[in-house]
Amino acid sequence: MTKKHLLGAAALAAVLLLACRPSQTVEGQTDDAQTKARIKTRLATDVSASTLTSVDVNVTAGVVTLAGPVSSEAERNHVGEVVRSVEGVVSVTNNLQVLVQPQVVTPAEAVAPGPSPTAVP
Q1: What are the domain boundaries of the chain?
Q2: What is the dihedral of CA 29, 32, 37, 38, to 10 degrees?
Q3: How do residues 20-55 score in pLDDT, each as one tens digit?
Q4: What pLDDT digit, counting tens, does each position of 58-78 carry?
Q5: Distance (Å, whole) CA 67 – CA 79
Q6: Are 58 and 89 in contact (CB under 8 A)?
Q7: Of 3, 15, 55, 63, which one has the greatest count of Cβ atoms within 10 A?
Q8: 74 or 15: whose pLDDT is higher?
Q9: What average pLDDT does the segment 5-33 reach?
Q10: Is this structure's pTM higher than 0.90?
Q11: Is the Cβ–Cβ distance between 59 and 35 less than 8 Å?
């Protein structure tokens, strides 16, 4: 291998190492993990079990992002308020999505009324 190739490989390795470095300190990551645990504990007592399991919580530097489905706008707002009240939360990005409830149509409703059949003589 030539000197030029070795320098190129070394430069590439340095770039990859710097790109993989986390943007937070170990202490910051630990704080975020503790905040996430407090959020999940609080949600376990304040929301339904189905909501708890469907809500994804991510914490970075105290900024919480919520994602996942909920059954109503009221539930979405409630989860956001619960999370805002947890120690260590700086702000909340509430990306929870309200599921649209499908309408149940019975077979009788599915058949559109039409003209009644007439007998042909």
Answers
A1: 25-98
A2: 150
A3: 545 668 777 889 999 999 999 999 999 888 888 899
A4: 999 999 999 999 999 999 999
A5: 11
A6: no
A7: 55
A8: 74
A9: 64
A10: no
A11: yes
What is the C-alpha to C-alpha distance for residues 64 and 33, in angstroms, rounded to an integer?
11
H helices of the chain, in order, are 3-19, 26-46, 49-54, 73-84, 107-110
Question: Does pLDDT of 16 surpass 60?
Answer: no
CA–CA separation, 78 vs 47, rounded Å?
8
Q: How many CB atoms lie within 10 A of CB 52?
A: 15
Residue found by looking up tokens 């979405």 in the block: 76
Place of tokens 């070795």: 6
Angle between helices 26-46 and 73-84 (to 10 degrees): 130
What backbone phi and psi angles, to 5 degrees, belong to 109? -75, -25
Return d(Cα 30, Cα 10) in angstroms, integer. 32
- CATH tag for 25-98 (out of 3.40.50.620, 3.30.980.10, 3.40.50.300, 3.30.1340.30): 3.30.1340.30
